[in-house]
Amino acid sequence: MKDTNILEKANLRALLETDQVDRVQDRLNIVDTFLGIEDHVTLEELFRLLKENGYDYEPSFVRQCMNRMVELGFAQRKQFEDQPIRYEHRHLGRHHDHLICTKCGKIVEFSNDELERLQVHIANSHGFHMLQHRMEIYGLCDECLAQRAPLMALVMAKPGERVQVKEITTGAGGRSRLASMGLRIGDNLEVISNDGRGRLILGHECSRLAMGRGIAQKILVSLSAAPGEDICGEK
Ligand SMILES: [Zn+2]
Ligand SMILES: [Zn+2]
Ligand SMILES: [Zn+2]
User: Fold this and answer.
1) For 64-103, how does the pLDDT look when each residue is reduced to its tens digit (9 = 90+)?
2) pLDDT tens digits, 177-211
């Protein structure tokens, strides 16, 4: 890894000198700090690291320097859903994709040849010549998943989650209301929408149910072990 960084720096110095830009050494210092991070950094995180390394550059200079790095192909800009812009290394000929935790923001890189081939194949089958793609998988990381209580109120489930009804803690009235909706213990649900305020929309046996938050508070569910399984019984 370190050897590549030295080569990258020499390559960059040559390009900066060709372009006759000013403050070449300052730029190389920024790049040095950036290349030392094997992570996806925001500009703010980069300023902080530069300060820790004893460099106090104006934010506008760092931003401009990173823009040039992107332009020259040494860095790439990434923006994941609900997150600020981040920069990561761009090593020629090496591609990777990302898993993003929607709870703690953790980003995990992966690469999978089979998936890459499949994407080209899918594009081709639609008459597309693939030039680039972004594969981002959003979900909960193992740590965030482990922090969750094994049973939670349905009202806490996030859109996209598949859960199984384990307990219904309402009185007889509530229970018969649920029974009239056709909802029983052991049923699988997919959370279609849950904005944290209004009612929930749930996928249940090939149809959609609207449920108030009060009653969703009284239904205890567990996350389904097999999230890929189809909620709709038709196979
Ligand atoms: Zn990919
Ligand atoms: Zn997480
Ligand atoms: Zn990455």
Assistant:
1) 999 999 999 999 999 998 889 999 998 887 889 999 998 8
2) 888 888 998 999 999 999 989 999 999 988 999 99
Ligand 1 is a single-atom ion; what residues have CB below 5 A from it? 97, 135
Q: What's the 141 CA to ligand 2 centre distance in angstroms? A: 4
DSSP secondary structure letters along 115-158: HHHHHHHHHHHTT--------EEEE--HHHHHHS-SSEEGGGPP
Ligand minimally distant from the alpha carbon of residue 136: 1
How far does the centroid of ligand 3 lie from the alpha carbon of residue 218, in Å? 41
Ligand 3 mean position to 97 CA, how many Å? 6
